[in-house]
From TrEMBL:
<protein>
    <submittedName>
        <fullName>Uncharacterized protein</fullName>
    </submittedName>
</protein>
Length: 183
């Protein structure tokens, strides 16, 4: 039997009851051919890339509220740090230049948020590190048009999540710190 409402407990103990049909769950991330081709072009500089592990301790949220009322989730209501880890590693593996047995690069998801007023924007930032190497941080904002109507606008936010992640990962790979950390 389908659930008619979802109840969310917010910080401070407040609750929101939302009709289940107003809950937005994004589809899975499909690796970007453009990002994969760029990673392949780095093979001379980085013969074997390491996979990345995102630390979920800092921010392990799996839901953001759109316009204060409508929950937006990643695929399968996965925590956003796990979503970013999977997306990044899928592209690294698809590039064919990973060494799955090497130590993993550590990452912390510093920001995973969106704006749905006055234009849509996915805002993502992360810090990457490995023992004995300089860490680097990347911040990206992917902007897109969004409707002023709540239901339509929140749907557009959800649909833009994948492209926002693709844009963020593209910036990660093209940051000089990425090559330095992978070498």
């Amino acid at each position: 039997m389908a659930q008619e409402n979802e109840v969310f407990i917010l910080p401070g103990g407040q609750t929101i009851v939302t009709p289940a049909f107003r809950v937005y769950v994004a589809t899975g991330y499909k690796p970007s051919e453009k990002n994969i081709e760029f990673l392949k072009s780095l093979k001379e500089k980085i013969p074997e890339m390491q996979l990345v592990t995102f630390d979920a301790a800092k921010d392990n949220r799996n839901m953001l509220l759109c316009r204060g009322s409508f929950p937006v989730y990643g695929p399968n209501k996965t925590p956003f740090s796990s979503l970013m880890e999977a997306a990044l590693n899928m592209e690294l593996v698809a590039s064919g230049v990973t060494n799955e047995n090497s130590a993993r690069i550590q990452a912390t998801l510093d920001e995973f948020d969106f704006s749905s007023f006055g234009g849509g924007a996915w805002k993502m930032s992360a810090t990457f590190s490995a023992p004995g190497k300089a860490s680097f941080s990347v911040k990206n904002e992917y902007t897109f048009p969004v409707s002023f109507k709540a239901v339509t606008g929140c749907g557009e936010i959800m649909k833009a999540m994948e492209t926002g992640i693709e844009s963020f990962l593209s910036k990660v790979y093209s940051t000089p710190g990425f090559v330095a950390l992978m070498q």
